[in-house]
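Inverse folding, one chain.
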């Protein structure tokens, strides 16, 4: 069993990766996408999104972070993959799942699922450019408008040399609306030999158990569920495959993590972004914690960082 922390643009950045891997239960992270167009990016562009590359490719808790590239040009992606692989990551991930209109309009992300042959060419080029000991993984959805080519896409990724495929069990047209069609991952698993990781709509231990049963995957990727309930990975591990009753990371245990998160936000982000980042996380946390609802109500109209400093300092008193 392994649990991977998902890439989520505008949410799961290096700050939240740091904190959630401190809480624990995560085996590996994938970064937010790094957009590759028609140029070889300098190392500082990769470090801006994945500063962990400057510290051995791991979060401070020692959890590996795999950079994710997004683009549609095989040669350009290969050149950039070779560069970022040389910076010390355990491998390179490729984004074939982003549903954002601006990305899809330029032929990136989930739009590529309409062209399995291009998927093959991209993965093949990147695989040839990355040293053999480093994995090339890929994240896909079930399709663009429908899931009729899901198996074809996965076979193309496998043929190109992908060593792992994450399947977000929805199409681009489904966006993030429930449900996730976990059984379609099992259909993909019936035609490929490449290890699969199941992703999508895993908010609770019971969701994780159901996903494993329906998808046939032991490997899971957690995104919004982990942000909303930082103890989710631990709870899944402790459940023994039998129960929803395990409670990991109660609210009081999150106090030092909220404080550390705010300290990192204050130290690394622009002042105008700081209050919003804390409120963004509290907005997710209130799905699981009644106390987070109270905190969100207290701070949702507050943009004075000095006031938020005082609130964070008072946690646990």
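Residues assigned per position:
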């Amino acid at each position: 069993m392994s649990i991977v922390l998902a890439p989520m643009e505008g949410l799961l950045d290096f700050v939240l990766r740091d904190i959630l891997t401190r809480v624990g239960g995560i085996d590996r992270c994938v970064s937010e996408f790094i957009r590759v167009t028609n140029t070889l990016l300098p190392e500082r562009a990769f470090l801006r999104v994945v500063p962990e590359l400057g510290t051995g490719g791991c979060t401070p808790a020692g959890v590996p972070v795999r950079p994710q590239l997004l683009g549609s040009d095989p040669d350009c992606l290969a050149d950039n993959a070779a560069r970022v692989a040389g910076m010390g990551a355990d491998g390179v991930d490729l984004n074939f799942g982003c549903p954002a209109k601006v990305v899809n309009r330029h032929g990136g992300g989930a739009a590529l699922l309409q062209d399995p042959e291009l998927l093959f060419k991209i993965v093949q080029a990147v695989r040839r450019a990355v040293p053999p000991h480093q994995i090339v993984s890929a994240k896909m959805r079930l399709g663009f408008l429908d899931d009729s080519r899901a198996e074809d896409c996965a076979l193309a990724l496998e043929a190109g040399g992908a060593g792992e495929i994450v399947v977000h069990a929805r199409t681009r047209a489904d966006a993030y609306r429930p449900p996730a069609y976990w059984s379609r991952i099992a259909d993909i698993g019936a035609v490929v030999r490449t290890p699969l990781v199941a992703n999508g709509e895993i908010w609770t231990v019971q969701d994780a158990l159901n996903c494993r049963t329906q998808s046939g995957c032991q490997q899971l990727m957690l995104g919004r569920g982990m942000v909303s309930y930082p103890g989710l990975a631990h709870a899944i591990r402790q459940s023994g495959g039998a129960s929803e009753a395990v409670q990991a990371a109660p609210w009081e245990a999150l106090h030092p993590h909220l404080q550390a998160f705010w300290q990192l936000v204050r130290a690394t982000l622009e002042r105008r972004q700081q209050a919003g980042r804390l409120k963004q996380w509290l907005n997710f946390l209130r799905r699981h914690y009644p106390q987070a609802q109270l905190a969100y109500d207290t701070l949702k109209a507050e943009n004075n960082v000095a006031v938020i400093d005082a609130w964070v300092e008072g946690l646990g008193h």
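Residues 251-268 form the longest helix (18 residues). The chain has 14 helices and eight strands.
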